[in-house]
Amino acid sequence: MSNFFHTKIEYLKGIGPQRAELLQKELNMYTYGDLIQHYPFRYLDRTQFYRVAELDESMPYVQVRGRVRGKQLLGEGRKQRLAATLVDEAGDELELVWFKGVKWMEKSLKNHTDYIVFGKPTEFNGKFSMAHPELEELSEAKQTTAFLQPVYNTTEKLKAHRIDSKVISKYIETLLKIAAPNIQETLSPDLIDRYRLTDKRSALVNIHFPESVEKYNAAKFRLKFEELFYIQLRLLRQKVVRRADLAGQIFTQVPTVTEFYKNHMTFDLTGAQKRVIKEIHKDLTSGKQMNRLLQGDVGSGKTIVAFITMLIAADNGAQSVLMAPTEILAEQHYTGLKEFADRLGINIGKLTGSTKTKERRTIHEQLRSGEMKMIVGTHALLEDVVQFHNLGLCIVDEQHRFGVEQRSKLWRKNPRIIPHVLVMTATPIPRTLAMTLYGDLDVSVIDEMPAGRKEIVTVHRFDSHRLRVFQFVRDQIKLGRQVYIVYPLIEESEQMENYKDLMDGYESVKRAFPEYQVSMVHGKLKPQDKDYEMQRFVRNETQIMVATTVIEVGVNVPNASVMIIESAERFGLSQLHQLRGRVGRGAEQSYCILMTGYKLSKDSKTRLETMVRTNNGFEIADIDLKLRGPGDLMGTQQSGVLDLLISDLAKDAPILQEARAAAQTILQQDPQLEHAEHQNIRRHIQSLSANTVNWSRIS
Ligand code: ADP
Ligand code: MG
After folding, report:
1. What confidence tens digit (pLDDT) does each residue in 3-62 have?
2. Which one of 120, 292, 408, 636 is most buried, counting C-beta atoms within 10 A?
3. Which helix (H) or strand (E) holds 175?
C-alpha cells in the first residue's frame, strides 16, 4: 500500500486524537491501512427477517423487525437492568434486556418506534428474549441501499464510547471515498488473469459494502487469495534464501547403518519409514542444511527413523542430540535408542534435570571430546556448559512444546556449521496448517502403521454403564493386561481442589479393584515420585494406572491394552487421540472407552463420534481444526503466525493450495522479482516490510 495508507487514523474526518487512541488500544488500529483492513466479521442480510413465532433456541443470531412498546428500568444499583418489549407484525412479543450501559440505552431507545433488532434468542417460560441486541431504527435502515450490511468487531470499551459497528462502518465509508485514487493493485496482471481475480479497489469496496452477492464473493476470494499468497511467498522466499546461505555437513558414509540393517534390525521397516529415511538421506548428502518436519501418528515408528538418522551422523564423525519435552519422554527415548546403540557398541548418554553432578561432568567431558556420539535429554541440554566436539544433528521431539528461542540455542552449539535439524511431532497437523506454519520446513510424513498392528477398538459408554465397564477391565486384567484410567484436569492450575475428581476416582478404583495394585500419576507429583509410579506400572507391579493427561505424551507400555477416559467430553479431539495412542502398542487387541454423562453438547457428540469412527490422526486433526479453529489447536505459542485478516485455514485449504502454487511458480521464474510483470508484487512486499518497522506505532 502506498504512503497514503500509512496515514494515522486520527486524521480521518470524524475520528480525531482521542478516538484514535482508543482504537489503537482496543483494536490495534493505527493507520488508514489498518482501518481499511478491518474487515466485517459478518453481514446483516437485510432480506432475512424472523417473526417471533418462528424463533427457536437453537438459532444462533436472528433479525426481528418490530415496534418498541414500553420500556422500564428494573432493580437497583449494580443489579439494575433495562427491559423493553418489541412487538412484531403478527403481534407477538419479544423481550429485550440490557444489563450494561443501562442508563444510556434507556435514554436512546425510542418508545413507539420501529426497530430492527439482532441477537441470540433465548426462551424462558415459553417467552423469548434477547440480551443486548444490536438495534437499528427502521427508518434509518431503509435508507441503506446495501442489502448486505457490514458488522464490525468492536469492544465493550469502544461501545461505551459510542464507537459501535455502525460508527466504524461510517469511518470506513469515509475512508473509502478518499482512498480510491490511492489504492494500488498488489497482484501481478498475470495472476489476476489466471485466477480471474477482481481488482484490488473493487475488492476493498465490496468486502465492506457489497454491491451484489457476486461482487461480494469475488471480493472475498480475491482478498483471501492475496493474503495467503503473500504468506506463502514470504515462507518460500525464506526457504530459498536459507537454501542458498546455509551450508550443511555432508554425510555420505554409511558403514554402520548398513551393518545395522543387515544384522541388528528385528523388524522390516514400513514403506513409509523407508521413504522418509530416503528423504532425510537426500538432505544429509546435499551440502545444504536439513530443516525437516517429521510427522507421524502415535506408534507409527518415528524412533527408529530418528535412530537411523543419528547413525548416519555418527558414521560421518558427527554427534547428535535428541531433545524431548519431559523427563519421562527423554527416559523412554533413551531406553529405546540405547537398545539399538548397544548392539552396535555406540556411546549414547542421557542428560536431564535429575542427572547427578558427577555423571553430568562425565557426560560434559565426553561430549566435548567427541567420545559420546549420541545424547538424549531435556532442556538440560540447552545449558551453556553443554558443548560438543562436532554437533551435526539436532532432533527435537514434540516440537510445539519448545519455543523457537530454545531451539535456536541448540543450533548454535556448533559454531562452525549449523547442525541438521529434524523436528518430530506425533500431533498430526493438517496439511493446510503445516503449509502455513512450517512453509519454510520440508515435511515428511509416516502415514502407515507397522504391519500386524491391530486397530484400537473405541467405544462410547455412559457413566451409568460403569459396572459393566469395570467388569470388562477385570476380564482384561485376568488376561494379563494393564489399564489406564484418565481424568481431565487443568494442569497449570495449582489448586488442589482441581484434583478432587482424580482423587475420588482413585479411591473408587481402589475400592472396585481390591485384588489389584493401582498407581496414580499427576502433575503435582515431584518428578522422582512420578517416575517411581510410572516405573511400577511399566514393570507390571501395578495393573491399573489412574492419571491425568501427564501420560499423554510418548509413554510406552506395550502391555497396557485398555484406555478409559473419564469425562471424555471435556477433552479436545486431538488430545483424546493422543491419549488413545498410549494403548495399541503391543500385539494384543486394545480398547479405548470414552466415558461421559448423558448431557452432551453438539460439538462433544461430534468429537466422540469421530473418535469411535476413525483411528486416522490426520482425519482427526482436520476435524479438530474445523471444530476449534487453528489458534486453539496449536496453543498460543504460534497463534501470532495465524493472525489472518480474512482467510480461515479450516475452510480455505483449496485457496491456500492455489496461492502456494502461484507463489512457487513466480519464484521459480523470477526469484528476485525483477521482471516487469512482478513489480506490483515487489512494491507490495516492500511496503509490507516497511510496515513492520512502522514508526507510527512507536510514538
Ligand atoms: P512413535 O512414532 O509413536 O514414536 P515408536 O517409534 O515408539 O512410535 O514405535 C512404536 C513401536 O512400534 C515400537 O515398539 C517400535 O519398536 C515398533 N516399530 C516401529 N517400526 C516398526 C516396524 N516397521 N515394524 C514393526 N514394529 C515397528
Ligand atoms: Mg515416540
Report:
1. 889 899 999 999 999 999 999 988 889 999 999 999 998 887 766 788 999 998 777 778
2. 292
3. helix 165-179
CA nearest to 553, candidates 574, 524, 526: 574
Residue 188 Cα, ligand 1 centroid: separation in angstroms? 48
CA-proximal residue: ligand 1, atom 4 (nearest) = 302
How far does residue 301's CA lie from ligand 1's centre (Å)?
A: 3
Predicted confidence (pLDDT) at residue 499 exceeds the cutoff of 70? no
CA distances from 179 to 171, 174, 199, 391 (A): 12, 9, 15, 55
Point out which residues pair with 93 in neighbouring strands: 87
Q: Does pTM surpass 0.85?
A: no
Integer Rg of the chain from CA: 30
For every residue of 187-231, DSSP letters joined together read S-HHHHHHTTPPPHHHHHHHHHS-SSHHHHHHHHHHHHHHHHHHH
For the Cβ of 349 lying below 6 angstroms from any atom of ligand 1, the answer is no
* 448 phi/psi in degrees, rounded to 5: -145, 135
Q: Which ligand is in closest contact with the Cα of 294?
A: 1
Reported residue count of the chain is 699
**What three-state secondary structure class fits 148?**
strand
Contact 668, 678 (CB under 8 A): no
Atom of ligand 1 nearest to the CA of 558: 14
Per-position b or e across 22-34, b if 16+ CB within 10 A of its CB: bbbebbebbbbbb
Nearest-angstrom CA–CA distance, 574 and 433: 14
Q: Kindly report, residue by residue over 584-605, the tens digit of the pLDDT.
A: 888 889 999 999 999 888 889 9
Q: How many CB atoms lie within 10 A of CB 510?
A: 15
Strand ranges for 234-303 from DSSP E: 291-296
The distance of Cα 382 from the centroid of its chain, to the nearest Å, equals 26
Contact 174, 14 (CB under 8 A): yes
CA–CA gap between residue 15 and residue 178 (Å, rounded): 15
Q: Which of the four pLDDT bands, split at 50, 70 and 90, describes residue 238?
A: confident
- Which among 117, 120, 119 is positioned nearest to 138, based on CA atoms? 117
Cell 521464474 -> residue: 669
Which residues have beta carbons under 5 A from ligand 2 (an ion)? 554
